[in-house]
Design a protein that fits this description.
By secondary structure, this protein is of the alpha+beta class. It folds into two domains: 128 residues, no CATH class; 224 residues, no CATH class. Strands 1, 2, 3, 7, 8, 9, 10, 11 and 12 form a nine-stranded mixed beta sheet that branches. A three-stranded antiparallel beta sheet has the order 4-5-6, with no helix packed on it. The radius of gyration is 24 Å and the shape is elongated.
């Protein structure tokens, strides 16, 4: 087998999954075409082209992902009609099997692309693979709600275009953490073309917002959603934002019976405080209002930290390695978080690389014992 062309190795593996994955159940090509296509079945000749012994075609990455989901568990073929199970409906062992199979098939597909000379000529496929496999990719048919704080009235009064009665009123000018918001909204839309992505102010959330995939941007001082979610998730991390005191801005961590404070690094220059290093929190957990959805927090002591927490999983140079670190470190934990450094150079927040230990100030995870 090792002497075979990589395209033939991929085709042989796909055929073996269909014919040999379960000794007492052989999946036919028409059955596979219906399972992978969902409401609109794929053509049988297309399936045959992927399994061809002489001139195999290379399936697009979303089909590789579907193969992994289908053949991760024998429950996919219960009743004699193969169907894809959703990730949230799988057991922990089934999800691990799916992830292992997806990594194997992705490696075979990448080898096949290189053999065909299509790797450099097919950048769109690589981008789709990156977006599909990251933490910001949610199941199709879901809603994603970004919750962002609005600037306080005393700040808005000094800014143009923030008065609702002004003909040139611009609603986005009233939001805080615009860098993080702009970056995250674009990434979420690209990664979730079949999902609705909405933006709401923290103090004007409709009831349905709480039961969607909820994303809270910004700190506890202005964003009520961040404050509420942090208190409800029982994370061992607290954000202290007492701006009346020079020493009152930090993240507090409880670990091994000890409390540690992590502060941003500021330097004095011409009587001004210059931010050199921020501290930021990235947290992901089961939504307490809807266990089939998630809640995510990206917040720093300053806007640079919130932006860095977002960029860790959107920056094309770092997102794949950081996403792989999360998978390897936290697996299928229901709740996890990373407290990270965010370096700031000449006012620009640099993307943290979580594979470098120095960027990770604190890590924590929890698995729901109830298995929900």
């Amino acid at each position: 087998m090792e002497s075979l062309d990589p395209r033939q190795l991929l085709a042989r593996r796909l055929r073996a999954l269909r014919e040999e994955r379960w000794p007492d159940m052989k999946v036919t090509q028409p059955q596979l075409a219906r399972a992978l296509g969902g409401n609109r079945a794929l053509s049988v000749p297309l399936i045959s082209s992927w399994e061809s012994r002489s001139n195999p075609k290379i399936p697009p990455y979303p089909r590789i992902e579907a193969y992994a989901a289908l053949f991760a568990t024998a429950r996919s073929v219960e009743g004699g009609t193969p169907q894809l199970l959703k990730r949230q409906d799988m057991t922990d062992d089934e999800r691990r099997s799916m992830d292992d199979l997806k990594r194997e098939l992705t490696r075979l597909r990448n080898d096949a692309l290189r053999a065909s000379g299509a790797t450099e000529a097919d950048p769109a496929s690589q981008i789709i693979q990156s977006l599909d496999s990251g933490p910001w990719r949610f199941e199709d048919g879901n809603s994603v709600m970004i919750v962002c704080a609005q600037l306080p009235p005393d700040m808005l009064s000094r800014m143009p275009y923030t008065d609702r009665s002004d003909p040139d009123y611009i609603a986005l000018y009233t939001y805080s953490d615009l860098d993080a918001l702009f970056e995250l909204y674009g990434h979420l839309r690209a990664a979730n073309p079949a999902n609705q992505v909405d933006l709401r102010a923290a103090d004007r959330l409709p009831p349905d917002a709480y039961t969607a995939h909820l994303v809270a941007l910004g700190g506890v001082d202005w964003n009520r959603a961040t404050r509420s979610v942090l208190s409800g998730l029982r994370l061992p991390v607290r954000q202290i934002a007492d701006w009346s005191s020079p020493e009152g801005q930090y993240f507090e961590v409880d670990e091994n019976g000890r409390t540690t404070r992590h502060r941003p690094l500021l330097e004095k220059s011409d009587q001004r405080n210059i931010l050199r290093q921020d501290v930021a929190l990235f947290a992901r957990a089961t939504n307490p209002f809807n266990r089939k959805r998630t809640v995510t927090i990206c917040n720093g002591m300053y806007g640079s930290g919130s932006y860095g927490a977002v960029r860790a999983l959107t920056d094309k140079r770092f997102r794949d390695r950081n996403a792989e670190y999360l998978r390897s470190r936290f697996g299928d934990s229901d709740s996890y978080c990373i407290l990270t450094r965010v370096q700031v150079e000449n006012g620009a927040a640099l993307t943290p690389d979580w594979t470098i230990a120095d960027y990770r100030l604190f890590e924590w995870s929890r698995t729901n014992d109830a298995g929900e």
